[in-house]
Amino acid sequence: xxxxxxLREIYCERKMLFNLRSFFHIKKLTWNNKHLLRHFWRGPPxxxxxxxxxxxxxxxxxxxAEELKHLLWMASDLKQRIxxxxxxxxxxxGKALAMIFEKRSTRTRLSAxxxxxxxxxxxxxxTTQDIHLGTxxxxxxxxRVLSSMTNAILARVYKHNDLxxxxxxxxxxxxxxxxxxxxxxQILADYLTLQEHYGGLNGLTITWIGDGNNVLHSIMxxxxxxxxxxxxxxxxxxxxxxxxxxITEQYSKEYGTKLLLTTDPLEAANGANVLVTDTWISMxxxxxxxxxxxxxRGYQITMQTVKFAxxxxxxxxxxxxxxxxxxxxxxxxxxxxxFQEAENRKWTIMAVMVSLLTDYSPQLQKPTF
Length: 369
Fold this sequence. Notes:
This protein is of the alpha/beta class. The protein has helices at 2-42, 65-84, 107-118, 139-149, 160-169, 184-198, 214-220, 242-255, 265-269, 289-295, 303-306, 328-331, 338-357, and strands at 96-101, 122-127, 152-156, 174-178, 205-209, 229-233, 259-262, 274-277, 314-317. The relative contact order is 0.15.
């Protein structure tokens, strides 16, 4: 009996010790799970130094250097986690995106639709034939209605003023999918592509050879903030908007970068790391085709052009491309990054949507810009 009693006491003591250890083990697991969940959705607190939630994205001019870097960091993070690691990040779960398209699109539409859906959200594609915009319903009324049913508006329009009005009337973030003045989503993709290729952006020289259009305007209002020099060649009469040129000159002085505006493509190409061009005839300019083709003679980027560039030159084009803008030898060369650039439209537009609609912070180590 004494032996049995002693064994019982030892058993009870061990059971209490086991239960105590189990209790602390469970508490530790619970804390770890909460920590991991917080880490998944929000990231390390030390990285949450930039918050873009609730902002609009109409032009990169309205974004600081650190905010631009944050968007590129976010894009790298999402690409790494989703594409390369195969993770599922339902950051847009329960959210809807209204996509207004006055102009045709391949990359903007596909990147926004697939990207938003990949994050667990619901994109709705709306053309002027699908909704009453501009016919039986004003832009003001449309913006208010969409604000009550969706979480963000992505609009690809002709007139930039329409976007300005939309942001005043909408109570949700508005994203510029393209306007006559700016194409910010395209340039974010360009910068991500260059970041991946060169390992950094600071100190690069970008040369633009072509029309003074919306794509160029977005480069002009952002390149200096990231430490990049800019050389621009446009035919006489096709220069970038004078107001944007003045802003670019101011940025160049503020950030200590170099800026050149010329009509000579070879002068602009001198020492360039990156050669960029775009269509000479945008949608809505078809009636100007003959005049424009005549004005842009000598502006085609060829292997003769790249002889003036830096030894590590690369080529970018936002697509669709026409042969008169760049010849096949350059466009399909190993130095051409156009298809990597096209894919990165998806990751950068996802980064914009996540940044404007959530508190998520990147988990990937911040790149050196």
